[in-house]
Design a protein that fits this description.
183 residues; 2 domains; three-stranded antiparallel β-sheet; five-stranded antiparallel β-sheet; alpha+beta; 4 helices
């Protein structure tokens, strides 16, 4: 199998995933092992006439409560795929929607039905626009992502805000994993 990540550097993936996760906080970024497992899993589900057949897209994000996965193709297009967990003989399955870039994807998802991230309930900082207060315990000094708090960012990992938990608890809550071994 060719190195399917060679065309997509980590920084480029982050530039796509962060804005997506800011809007879709019911999704998460798979770790490297999970992302590598999703590509062959997708390939097993594809009919030879499916538009993704023969490609090796990279998994960027996965829905927490469904079988939906955001992939990026080698040509740069993004695709939302509802992975069917049973093999299908239907060339239209799995259901796949293609987007030319993150802006087109976000526009398609922004239906105006409350998917936007609410502001900080304590100081009204607009987290979605990158605003945060250093003095506000609910903001914790950062908007929707921050450098790893366990090692002060030395590992390079970015943690994401647990928006609803931060709002409910009145204190910043972060989700992530330190990239330093043993942390």
């Amino acid at each position: 199998m060719p190195d399917w990540l060679s065309f997509l550097r980590k920084r480029d993936r982050a530039a796509i995933v962060r804005p997506f996760l800011r809007v879709r906080h019911d999704w998460e970024q798979p770790d490297h092992r999970q992302a590598r497992a999703l590509t062959p899993e997708l390939a097993r589900r594809l009919h030879p006439a499916h538009p993704l057949h023969g490609q090796s897209p990279v998994a960027l994000a996965q829905a927490c409560a469904s079988d939906d996965v955001l992939f990026q193709c080698a040509d740069g297009r993004l695709c939302l795929v509802h992975l069917e967990w049973q093999d299908s003989s239907d060339p239209a399955l799995p259901d796949t929607h293609f987007f030319d870039g993150i802006d087109q994807l976000l526009a398609a998802l922004d239906t105006g039905d409350g998917e936007r991230v609410p502001p900080c309930p304590s100081c009204s900082a607009d987290w979605q626009s990158g605003e945060a207060s250093r003095d506000c315990p609910c903001c914790g000094g950062f908007a929707l992502d921050r450098p790893c708090p366990k090692c002060g960012g030395a590992c390079g990992a970015q943690w994401q805000r647990a928006v609803q938990d931060s709002i409910d608890g009145g204190i910043a809550v972060w989700i992530g994993k330190c990239g330093n071994a043993g942390s």
